[in-house]
Design a protein that fits this description.
With about 220 residues, the chain is α/β, with parallel strands linked by helices. The chain has 9 helices and 8 strands. The protein folds into 2 domains: about 5-20 and about 90-215, Rossmann fold, CATH 3.40.50.1000; about 25-80, DNA polymerase, domain 1, CATH 1.10.150. The radius of gyration is 17 Å and the shape is globular. This is Pyrimidine 5'-nucleotidase.
Length: about 220
């Protein structure tokens, strides 16, 4: 049993964390980003996608790379790429129950937009499980894993690192969380292969992990 009895603030990434990577939902958004890049650059699709991936790897998100190199309107980009069908997302009663069981505060911490987070959480029927969402515009469009974005989130929501747990599907986004003193949990099908010392726990089954963990108030 994983001991999380010291945790009273629960921070969750959104995409590929609160629903499984295997849904393929994010691939729709990635394709919309490639559509945007192809149109914006006028390059063949493969070349546009290569630039998109370079921006993601170098700047944390495609948007951050576009803003730095091309000064685009971030909200117009976000509105366009997030206009995808939600049909691939299915509410998971086990996830909903596990989230609502968590003692203390629950927040979503995402590099996505506020509108995207709202749509996804409502579709998954877990919007009411969270106090609030810290989204990319609240971060001044500076994405995780930038340390200043973690600091902004903590200041805005009055979060102390010690006593907080952060759940993410991206290993690199957990490094600053661990450096601050948060408990980190890597989520997804590749989590078990991680050997990073800043990853404290790993799971492919987030609802099962949460349901099986020892929480504050649980019997000793």
């Amino acid at each position: 049993m994983t001991d999380l009895a010291h945790i009273d603030v629960w921070l969750f990434d959104l995409d590929n964390t609160l629903y499984p990577l295997e849904t393929g939902f994010m691939r729709q958004i990635e394709e919309r980003m490639t559509d945007f890049m192809e149109r914006f650059t006028g390059l063949p699709r493969d070349e546009a996608r290569a630039i998109q991936k370079t921006y993601f790897q170098t700047h944390g998100t495609t948007l951050a790379g576009l803003m730095k190199n091309h000064q685009i309107d971030p909200e117009a980009f976000l509105d366009e790429v997030h206009q995808v069908s939600l049909d691939l997302l299915t509410p998971d009663p086990a996830m909903a129950a596990a989230l609502r069981r968590l003692p203390g505060r629950r927040l979503v911490f995402t590099n996505g937009s506020a509108a995207h987070a709202e749509r996804v959480l409502e579709r998954l029927q877990i919007a009411d499980a969270f106090e609030d969402v810290f989204h990319i515009s609240a971060a001044d469009y500076i994405p995780k894993p930038a340390p200043e974005t973690f600091e902004k989130m903590m200041r805005r929501h009055g979060v102390a690192a010690v006593g907080s747990a952060f759940f993410e599907d991206s290993e690199k986004n957990l490094a600053p969380a661990a450096a601050l003193g948060m408990t980190t949990v890597l989520v997804g099908p590749h989590a078990g292969a991680s050997t990073a010392d800043f990853v404290h726990h790993r799971t492919h089954d987030l609802p099962g992990f949460l349901a099986g963990a020892r929480m504050k108030g649980s019997p000793a």
